[in-house]
Design brief:
The protein is mostly helical and 188 residues long. Helix content is 77%, strand content 0%. It contains 6 helices and no strands. The protein is rod-shaped and about 90 Å long.
């Protein structure tokens, strides 16, 4: 067998290994990113489910805070409607919902009877726990996107990514400083 044919076979095998391994690696990372995104969705759904109960509990005590309650309900509804939107748009509406929840929890400070209500305290604790879970899910998602994006943009996987149409992932970023804060929960 001529030396040129042997070299051609070796190069072909090496390229097949690089492309096959690269393709499999990118598929695994893309699936990890999708899984991480679904974990955010699970926690956001949990938060959406808690909000109506919290609003109803607060409503009984704060008859003069209608505007704040409506803002929370409206932000929740918008966030739910955009549940299939991209990460940037979801981050924006979720930030608005977080801000509305923060205003609601600040209003509660004016009503000591409400702050002592066991149902409210349980909902507030559950909401705080959910906010922490959302934060961890966002972090995991963004870490997964970082790994995926690094792989699609570095040699040799960038060649495979370009050949098979792998696109960069979108981070779940909160842009406004006020949106970065979770609702403050006070048990005092």
């Amino acid at each position: 067998m001529p030396v040129g044919a042997i070299v051609g076979i070796i190069v072909g095998v090496v390229l097949a290994i690089i492309f096959g391994g690269g393709y499999n690696r990118l598929v695994q990372l893309r699936n990890q990113t999708k899984n991480a995104w679904s974990q955010i969705d699970v926690q956001l759904k949990r938060r959406y489910d808690l909000i109506p109960n919290l609003v109803e509990t607060v409503k009984g005590y704060t008859k003069h805070e209608r505007e704040t309650l409506e803002a929370v309900t409206k932000a929740r509804n918008i966030a739910q409607q955009l549940s299939s939107a991209g990460a940037a748009e979801r981050a924006k509406v979720e930030g608005e919902l977080t801000s509305a929840l923060g205003r609601l929890l600040a209003v509660v400070e004016k009503y000591p009877d409400l702050k002592a209500n066991q149902n409210y305290l349980a909902l507030q604790e559950e909401l705080s726990s959910t906010e922490n879970r959302i934060s961890f899910a966002r972090q995991y998602y963004n870490d997964s996107v970082l790994k995926y994006n690094n792989s699609t943009q570095t040699i040799p996987y960038n060649v495979v990514a370009r050949a098979f149409g792998f696109k960069s992932g979108e981070f779940f970023e909160v842009t406004a400083a006020g949106e970065r804060e979770a609702p403050k929960v006070s048990f005092t």
